[in-house]
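debug: dumping io for the single-chain case to check the tokenizer round-trip. Nothing else runs in this session.
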Amino acid sequence: MIPALPGVPLVFLGILIYAFYTNFTIISLSTILLFAGLMILSIIVDYTSGLIGAKKLGATKYGIWGGLIGLLIGLVFSPFGFISVILMPLVGTITGELIGGKKIFESSQIGIGTLIGYLIAIIIDLSIAGWMILTFVKIIV
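debug: decoded output
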């Protein structure tokens, strides 16, 4: 769930610890491998979703760099917590595109593409984490 909030990796880590603790008698190695694959997918989606959203709407290198810088600022400073992690890439992308010479309307559209990409990543992460938790509970109950 956004790089600063590693939801799926934390869920996976908890399940992995339980599997080790029970010597893989309750949670099988194949289930752990499936969950590991889903965790890797989640991480890839987290780090590429904003970029893909921006590129789909015509981002230039200025917008991409602006979005990355905005993400880093949101992660490091987070003056508004989770909101900063979502809004700063949007602001960074728009700023980058404006610096690159695009008009405010086009820059804003590209910034919204970044935001949509991140929101899709959150939905995917919540779905993966929820499915992993439900599967884990079903196995141990």
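debug: round-trip ok. The helical segments are 7-21, 29-56, 61-76, 82-99, 104-140.
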